[in-house]
Structures are given as C-alpha cells and as structure tokens.
Design a protein that fits this description.
With 534 residues, the chain is α/β, with parallel strands linked by helices. α7 packs antiparallel against α10. The protein is built from 13 helices and 15 strands. The longest helix is centred in the last third of the chain and has 44 residues. Strands 3-4-5-6-10-11-12-13 form an eight-stranded parallel barrel. Strands 7-9-8 form a three-stranded mixed β-sheet. The chain folds into two domains: 282 residues, TIM Barrel (Alpha-Beta Barrel); 148 residues, no CATH class. InterPro entries: GH, Glyco_hydro_5. This is Glycoside hydrolase family 5 domain-containing protein. Keywords: Glycosidase, Hydrolase, Membrane, Transmembrane, Transmembrane helix. It comes from Alexandrium monilatum. Belongs to the glycosyl hydrolase 5 (cellulase A) family.
Amino acid sequence: MVNSSQVTPVVPLELLPLQTKGRWIVDSRSQRFRLKCVNWFGASGTQHVVYGLHKRTLQDLVSTLVTWGFNCVRLPFSLELFFTNPPVPGSKTRAEPAMAPGISGMDAYDQTVAAITGAGILVVVDNHSSDSGWCCEASALDGVWFTHEYPERRWIEALSAIARRHRSNPRVVAFDLRNEVRDTPTAQVVWGSGSVVDGKVLADWPSAAERAGNAVLAENPSLLILVTGLCYGHDLRGARDRPVQLDVPGRLVWTAHSYHWYFWWHHDIFAGKGTGAACLGLSLVCLVMAVLVLGRARRSGRRGTTPQACLEVAGAYIGFTGLVFLLYSVATRSVTSNEACSDRGRRDVEPFLQSGSVLLALGLLGIFLSIALRVWQCRRRKVAGDQESGGEASGASPSHRQGCMACVVPVLVGLALALGAVAFFTLSTVSYWLLVDHLDRAWGFVLEEGHDYTAPLLLGEFGTDKQDDFWQGLIRYITEKDLDFAYWPFNGQKWNYEKGWFIEETYGLLDSTWASVREDWKLRDVIGYTSPGR
C-alpha cells in the first residue's frame, strides 16, 4: 500500500473539501479545481475486487496513476458487493500481499480506497449496478436504481453506509449515485412525476436522486453529489425544466457518459470524408458542364432551358431533400429509440420528420405541376402542328433540338444538387459542429451560467480503441469546455464472464501486463502525458 508519508500528495488536504460555484468545481480557496479522473473497475463484478492485483500491487498501480498525472479515481461498486460482502478469490489478489486470501469484498474495496487516497488522489464512489457483473445490457432489470432484490430503500441504505464508512477520509470527495440510468423491460425512467402506465412503472429519476443525495449529505455534507442523465447517462434535457435540488447548496455535479455508439453516424455513413469529397467533386463537374452547355446555347441563339424543366428539377431536388430528412428521421429513431431509451429518439427526430414531410410534399407538387405544364404545351403544339402544312423533311426539327437542349442544363444542375446534398450529408456527419450541437443539446447546456440547472459536469465515462474523427472531436470538446472527466478505463484487462478468465481491455490505458501504457496517443489525448522515450 502507498505510504502517504513517503510521497508528495497529489491533492493536498488544505485544498479540501471541494464545492461548486456556478458551472465550476472549486477548492477550499474558491479556486477552480479540475477533476482529472480515471475509472478503475472490477469491484462491481463477480470477482469483487479491482482488476490488476493478480499481476501488480496496489502501490505499483497507484504509483502509475500518480506518474501519469491523474488526481482522481472513479471506483465502481455493486449493491450486491455491499450487502453480501463475498470473499474475493485468492487468485485475483495474488500480487497484493496486504490482501489475505479470502478477504471480503468490502474490506478489499476499503483497502483500495485507502491506497488511492494515501497517495493524495481523490476518490469518486460509484454505484455502478445492483447485481455484480458486467454493465449495462438493455434487458437488465437494474437499469433503474430499484429491483426486487434491492429496492430503493436498500440502495439509499448502501450509499449512506458507505458515506459514513469513509466520512473520516477527506479525499473521498464525491458519490456518483447511480451509473447509466436507463429504461428496463419493467420500468421507464422519466424526468418528472412517476406513476404506472400500461403496467410499466414510470420511474421519476430526479426525485429519487434528491432522496439519495440528501441521505448521503446527511452522513457527510462535504461530499459532491453526482447525478447522471437518462439513456445511459447521455440525456440531461429534463434538467432544463426540472433541475435537481439538494438540501446542501454547492454540492450538485451533473455527470454524463459519451461513447461513439451513442451517435447515429458512428458507422462512418457512406465512408465519410472519402465519399463526401468524391461527391463534391462530381457535383462541381456537373455544374461546370451545365455552365458550358448554357453558354453554347446562348451563343447559338437557342434557349438553354424551359420553365417546366426548371420546375421538374426544383421539385425533384426539394422532394429529394425531404426524402433525406425522412430517412434520417427513421434511421435516427431506429438507432436511438431502443429498449433502454424509449423517449429519446422520438424527441430527436420530430423537427426532421415534420420538415421532411413538408419538403417531400412540395417536391411532389412541383413535379406534378411540371408534368401538367408539359402535357398542356404538348397539346398546344399538336394543335399548332395540325394547322401547319405538311411535307417537311424528315429528321430532328429545330424545336426538337431546342427541347432536348432545354432538358440538359436542368438535369446537370439537378445532378449537381443531388451529389452536393450527399456530399454535405457525408461530410457533416464527421464534422465537429455536428458533434458540438448534439452534445450541447443533450447535456452541455448545464454549463450555461445563470440558470436553475447550472452546475458543473463531470464526463464520467468516455473511451475508445481508435483515434477516429469522433474521438478527436470529443477530446476537442472536453478541452474547449474545460470539462472535468473520468476516462474509461484504467484497466489493462477485463473479466470474460462466459469463459471465466481475463481478456484484453482494448479501451484500457494499461496493456495486459498492467505495467505499460497501451497506446501513447490515448494517454496523451486524455491527460497530456507522454511515456519516456516515445
């Protein structure tokens, strides 16, 4: 275990306790204090202890956190761990001499907290789940904070008891009341009043968070209380109209999670930038060709287009745009409105659904009018032709050639517009502004000063195994917003529940040896640390 007398503490005690001031977390001097955390999981799983102690000691692992520059650890636990307090398998702690074989899960949790805080690093206690295991399947019943085995009363009891258990440790600074709140097969989480509809409980999350948060603060009023959003922690929009109010002011911190699969465009629609650039190039080629054809027509004294051709192209393009909006609405609702997020998709797509329907209707109307105009002109020409004398030479007449030429320019312009729309769609899906717009609407707005909902926000989980556009955009957003954060995870391995052994944790900062960084770029992006020699 790390001996606090042998190291310079990462966070000196004189800076504690932390509190909030507007959108910021501040220290005891009212100076900005940024939580730079990492998640270290395992205690909420079926092995009942943080992973890594089968290869390295607590002191070694905590020293790595200090070296890398983290000042905080988000430490998950399950209600099952607290209430059953099962023994930890000896094989999972064989590298840690301070943990005797068969040590209980809660004693191991306490020793982990002591080792982390002994180095001067802060701890955020996270109630990750009710049952021990991997989180968080949409079909799991513990997506809400109450289950048959662990009702709300026991959830609050566990939080209060752990707050009391660590009350004398000032570096235990915050409680994340519940991880990734979401709908379950028997309950739909709402941000408002609760009731029962069609046999399904409408569970009022902000009211429950207030009850639990106030119970924790009754044990230790110096703690920060983290309250997550709905739909896996991604949706805080209900806080605009119904913010959480705690008995102790300056204690509320919002928390959100963000992974690439939360976003409908994460599959790189149409191959992203490559397809978008190609479509943009083809669109420009079509426009140039249209200009050349129009110029040639003007030089030869022919008309370059006709009203009905323009109407057809305009109608087709407007209708095409409306169809894109409608398809986007269907796709977005399909992706986001799943078992665990029943309401989010519908609210997200409503504006696109309405505008798409209007545009498609206008486009179809334009095409119908152009067809009607063509029919009327054909009849008029037929009447005029019947009145003319026959005997003209066979072959294409000037009027026929003019009609063909009149169609070329609108068709080229139509192709240019259609290709341009595809280019805009594919390029915008990997753009930073789209990510910012989405995050600001989902939870970033809580950082706006001067509102009832204004409070700091900790990005409690985010992670990746690839340095793609989404990751780079998210890191930029974190930097520009100066967000407090907790990367997921520190771990080099995770437990395979089906096979019963450790496997690679590809999102981890550590590699499978638990001694080296997995990818230097990831650590540099998250915390600004570069491994020596890299």
